[in-house]
Amino acid sequence: MAGTDGTTQTNPTARQGDADRTTRTDHTNETGETGDTDDMDDMDDTPVMYVQSSVAGAAKILVVGPMGVGKTTLIGTVSEIKPLSTEATMSQAGARLDTKVRPSKTTTTVALDFGRITLGGELVLYLFGTPGQQRFLPAWKDLARGALGALALVDTRDLEASFDAIGHLEDLDVPFSVAVNAFPDSKPHSEDDLRSALDLLPHTPLVICDAREHQSSVKALISLVSHLIETLTEAS
């Protein structure tokens, strides 16, 4: 909040180093008066979203999958802060490398997606969405560093496209669960058929979700967290 002397005061309860919080930046001119620059006008009504004081732990979680599977949508759906997205328009220059999943898909993530969600008021999940294209694999591997686990999104209309992402998680020994993103034109499949097609181990969670729906997406994340807790408990 702005003080009477024209300076910006920091909420004393705020946690320092929380890089994903949204703040309003004031600029002081030579007379000491404060004013927002034109490009900050759209942030005037943006609430400050600090991590709750009840939070006792945090975890880095990856959201992985092929291009167009719904990673950006899911993170945007559940994030309690304004999500960071690096969506870029798919250009003709990349047409030789990136295959469009459908005609309406005109953008793609070129670096990462980022969001934050608090579960039960005690656990914060920092969500990192990975690029889906093979040419961004070096960045994908960097994002995996320090991740406690991953949610692998799959599309039953093209299960084969998910093999690489799941394979990368296995190679990096990152625990994961699988969420089938239910698209309107997806055909239903039994759990046994999906597990067989994806070659999943018996203990790997498999859930159905709709990345556009908040409750459905949160349940998918809760399934992952429960799996991670069980895995850590068994290892201790």
TrEMBL record:
Keywords assigned by UniProt, alphabetized: GTP-binding, Hydrolase, Nucleotide-binding
Ranges of Polar residues composition bias in the record: 1-14
Record field: compositional bias (Basic and acidic residues): 17-30
Name under which the protein is recorded: ATP/GTP-binding protein
Coiled coil start-end: none
Chain spans, region Disordered: 1-45
PANTHER family: ATP/GTP-BINDING PROTEIN-RELATED, GLIDING MOTILITY PROTEIN MGLA
A molecular-function term among this protein's GO annotations: hydrolase activity
Family assignment from sequence similarity: Belongs to the GPN-loop GTPase family.
Pfam families: ATP_bind_1
Bias kind Acidic residues: ranges: 33-45
